[in-house]
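ok here's the first one, seq then struct tokens
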Amino acid sequence: MQNRRGFDGDHRYMLTVSGLAKRYPHQGRVRTLFENLSFELGPAERLGVLGRNGQGKSTLIKILGGVLAPTNGAVRWNMRSSWPLGFSGGFQGGLTGVDNIRFLARIYDRPIAQLMESVEQFAELGESLTMPVKHYSTGMRARLAFGLSLAIEFDCYLIDEVISVGDVLFQEKCEQALFGKRADRAFVIASHDMNFMRQKCQRGIIIDNGQFWLLDDINEAVDLYTDICIQTEARRAADPLRA
């Protein structure tokens, strides 16, 4: 089920998702997270991805970021996209934080010294940058990923709950760096925080039980998602074995 929205802006700078599907084997059966998902995202647009745990929010973000391959469909980027913020699978665990920064500097053709200084200042990892990343905590890896994502400028940022990384001051620092200094960028955001989604997003995709809903108003998306969660909990309470 979907409500598609056309994009009337400059098609040279946008994300186009066409007929996207993700299925995988689960307990001897094939589970479908979503199928025939299509949408467009233009410059400075903010799209929220809503869904209960395990329904496919993070999977969609990783597919958009090139981390996972879809079962069917295509993702076409005509603007520069970040990797999923907070996702650290792209790091080489045996290398130090410093060596990973150098590696990405070469990939993105950025001055190593400039990138190093930017990441050091933002991530606040100090001497931990000289440690192999495999010894980092989840939060430290996310800080490094976040610092790198902001050290390299992108047209669209993919976010999966990463604002929750670190203490309150660091979270505020992340939010200002993203939504203050980069207010003119596009965002695709997956989050369980509905107040955050209402404040930061314009549109919403809900993924639930193999279906999706694409709505042009984030408030309508949050309201519908809330209703879906209430109905799911009611079914679970009535019949725990089938919910």
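and now the second one, same deal
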Amino acid sequence: MSADIASFVREKLGHEPGDIRLYELALTHSSVGGGSYERLEFLGDRVLGMVIARALYERYPNEPEGNLSRRYNDLVDRKRCAENGREIGVPALVRLGKQARGDGASQSENVVGDVVESLIGALFLDGGMEPAERFILKLWEPDLSSQGRAPQHPKSALQELAAAKGVKAPLYEVVSRTGAHHAPQFTVKVSVPKLGDAIAEGTSKQEAETAAAAALLSRLK
């Protein structure tokens, strides 16, 4: 397994691994017992944020902070991390306990997204900022290049629409929470007086709220 991980680090992360144990830990879910990727994920999340923030600052020198923030939030969210992780084959290498494996955690957006961040953390500790930045910019380049205009978050757009119509702000309600701890599924309902309501699902409360806002917006257009 260590040989597979070393090969993955060389081919997909673009780095000759020094301490292979860091990458093994970065790929280990808490369901295995013992150490897990959670601390590395914490670190990798900050490294990813720094690299993307700098890339946006340099790429859009004339944009105000609000536009940069919307671009940033779109690029570093869990769904984006998971999509990029699947692109490089992360799910096949995630180490899971028997129950989590049976529940399909290797395909969970939360798990895959977390592991991508933990791998960034491992890469940063093993090689420093340069290889971590190189990896992030290479993997995120299609997202950076295709972003176009600064995206407006659906929740912000819905709130602005409600204000323009002179009605109360959107109200979000968690209808249900199902699934295992490592792979939850939230159902959220959003309601806006006189405009209507919509229900959507997501692997986090925030994701479900965003999807519900987007669904209501599309209905109102």
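notes on #2: The mean pLDDT is 92. The beta strands are 171-178, 185-192, 196-202.
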